[in-house]
Amino acid sequence: MRTAGPRLRVGQVDELKAELHRDYPVPVSVTLVLDGGWLGSKHSGVLAEQLRAAGRDVSLVFGAPFDPVDSSYKVQGLRRLLRWSNRTGRKLELLRTGPIGIPAVAAGAKVAAIGLSSSTRHLGGPVARRADGVVPRRSPQVFVPRLLHWQRGVDLKGSEITDCSCAACARAGTGLQRFGVAFDSSVPSRVRNAAREHDLHALAGVVRGVGAAADPREELTRLRQDARELAEAVGVPVPKWLGNWDQ
Ligand SMILES: [Zn+2]
Q: Which domain of life is it from (predicted)?
């Protein structure tokens, strides 16, 4: 059983304590819906300390307009929580997460629910409008297996990135090139659904590949290294965890 879990703004220590120490008539995992700032260098120590004091299983959801783990400090903060879980045997689940869930499970997380859309990867917040008032054209977000994360279809260039051997792409025959399209308003559901189908196959392929490797952590290290080198070669940004998980 997981508790309901109200959203906790960064620094709301009293509210955090109240959630962690509330009595329930049955065993529960305490759901904490936390602003991404809780993972920052200033607050992750406080959070770890409170988890230690409470000694309960936790189910975590992080909130941010884009990526809640968008700095090396936040990656370190998440790893600090995983170390707490390993040390104490308390279970830690990531209820909404992205590909960072793969190394998190390798590092001891009990569950990592990797979402196919940004709203199932983290709890969103208000996104600021562009100051220049320009409305960007919409292109489907596509999971790129070799980069271990999502990219806009129109930003995918070169066969190293657009080749995909997943079942959906094998059927379509054109790899990820078919998502190199942009629209004035929203992405049509036909295109979005095709991207989701690819995402599902491609992400499952990565997870299966890591899980089936003789040494999953080593395999993940290799994939991360490849992703960083490829991203650098083709000039696309990569999420912070790719470079900061080991340090
Ligand atoms: Zn594919």
A: Bacteria
